[in-house]
Design goal:
Blueprint: H1 2-55, E1 59-60, H2 67-80, E2 86-90, E3 97-101, E4 107-112, H3 113-118, H4 121-136, H5 139-163, H6 174-212, H7 215-231, H8 235-239, H9 267-279
Helix pairs in contact: 1-5, 1-6, 2-4, 4-6, 4-7, 5-6, 6-7, 6-9, 7-9
């Protein structure tokens, strides 16, 4: 089913890409867009995860420079029966995280330094379990390819703004076609992102709760991340809005738009679903992380090289 779902996504995004090419340059533009889309589909399958990690300047970590964080991911992967993914940190004060990779054997999880600073180890475990659930459900391939192609479609719409007016002789719809390329195509790509993310977050929440062993860890983390994302801007995400659907919580400043146009389900609804799981009897006192001292409000994080000369000390470093 994942292969069918991915193939359908690629077909739709390719068709949308060709449609934008047709609006800009007629049949010739459609054929050029088809060739570009075919090349991008191939490139995205093999390299979209690297592009996303590079966009956020994520750095791979291990037991030497982030021992506790690495151990949490390792134990959760063992609980889920997954191969150990690569573990990344990216330097950003906004608490958030995402997963990427074309399959469980070539997967990666990434967390912001802000996430490790704001959350307890149990809450971090809940977040990482959610991301591992995306990997186990094989959502990451579809989500990373969507991010790459949606960004390309938006760029093509911008191309129409600057160069579409010089191609009216080849464009059967004239200026109307240019406007459609500028507005309709990016909107359609955004709707695809919304549909993908909104339908998969609940499933990843449920499976993540099973992996970490306590739904309340993830519920607590979601509340903290949502509050942090609402007050702390993520400049990298603002520059790469096509990747917003990959995060556990929408990182964009416009996340508080009408719920119909959000890339993620309502956070309160997600928390309520997790609390219902806990009330149903799924609530354990032990898990893949050691019990945290409740008086500790934040955690130090490893220095990822984006300012500061001394790495902070604490359980994460």
């Amino acid at each position: 089913m994942n292969l069918v779902r991915t193939a359908m996504l690629l077909a739709f995004m390719t068709a949308l890409f060709m449609f934008v090419g047709f609006l800009i340059g007629g049949r010739a533009g459609m054929m050029i867009a088809f060739l570009i889309a075919a090349g991008m589909n191939f490139f995205s399958y093999w390299n979209s995860d690297r592009l996303v990690l590079s966009a956020y300047r994520a750095q791979e970590v291990d037991e030497r420079n982030a021992p506790e964080f690495f151990r949490i991911v390792r134990d959760l992967a063992r609980n889920a029966g997954l191969p150990m993914p690569k573990v990344y940190l990216y330097d950003n004060p906004q608490p958030n995280a995402f997963a990427t990779g074309r399959n469980p054997e070539n997967a990666a999880v990434a967390a912001s330094t802000g996430l490790l600073a704001a959350l307890s180890p149990e809450e971090v475990a809940g977040v990482m379990a959610h991301e591992l659930a995306h990997i186990q459900n094989r959502d990451t391939l579809t989500m990373t390819i969507t991010a790459t192609l949606a960004g390309a479609i938006s760029m093509l719409g911008n191309f129409a703004f600057f160069f579409g007016g010089n191609r009216e002789n080849n464009n059967p719809l004239g200026f109307i076609g240019v406007l459609m390329a500028m507005i309709v195509a990016p909107l359609a790509a955004m709707l695809v992102q919304m549909a993908i993310s909104r339908t998969r977050e609940y499933s990843a929440d449920r499976r993540g709760a099973e992996i970490c062993g306590n739904p309340l860890w993830l519920a607590s983390a979601l509340g903290k991340i949502a509050r942090g994302a609402a007050h702390v801007p993520n400049e990298d995400a603002e520059r790469n809005p096509a990747t917003a659907h990959m995060f556990i919580i929408n990182p964009l400043s416009g996340e508080r738009m009408d719920n119909l146009f959000s890339t993620h389900p309502n956070t309160e609804n997600r928390i309520a679903a997790l609390q219902e799981m806990a009330q149903g009897g799924m609530n354990v006192s032990t898990g893949p992380v050691r019990a945290a001292n409740p008086s500790r409000k934040s955690r130090s994080v490893p220095n990822t090289g984006r300012g500061g000369s001394q790495p902070p000390k604490g359980p994460w470093s």
